[in-house]
Amino acid sequence: MSLHDRVESLKDKHAALDAALQAESRRPQLTAAAVSEMKRKKLRIKDELERLSASV
User: Fold this and answer.
1) What is the distance of C-alpha 42 from the center of its chain?
2) Cα 15 to the chain's mean position, in Å?
3) Residues 45 and 13: beta-carbon distance below 8 Å
4) Can you give the pLDDT at residue 29?
5) Which of 10, 22, 40, 42 could form a disulfide with 17 if both were Cys (CB 3.0 to 4.6 A apart)?
6) Cα separation of 50 and 17, whole Å?
7) Which residues contact 30 (CB under 8 A, 6 or more apart)?
8) Which domain holds residue 10?
9) What is the mean pLDDT of residues 2-15?
């Protein structure tokens, strides 16, 4: 997988997590644990994207 492909894949995952977080926030019974886990994953992806951008 090329660097560009990896970055695009991470961007797609980040966007999917963002959509999942928005959907979860609209639920009447908000699951705090699920939201926290999604936010952590999203932050890890963002950190990796920044790291990859810095190395280019």
Assistant:
1) 3
2) 6
3) yes
4) 84
5) 42
6) 17
7) 24
8) 3-55
9) 93
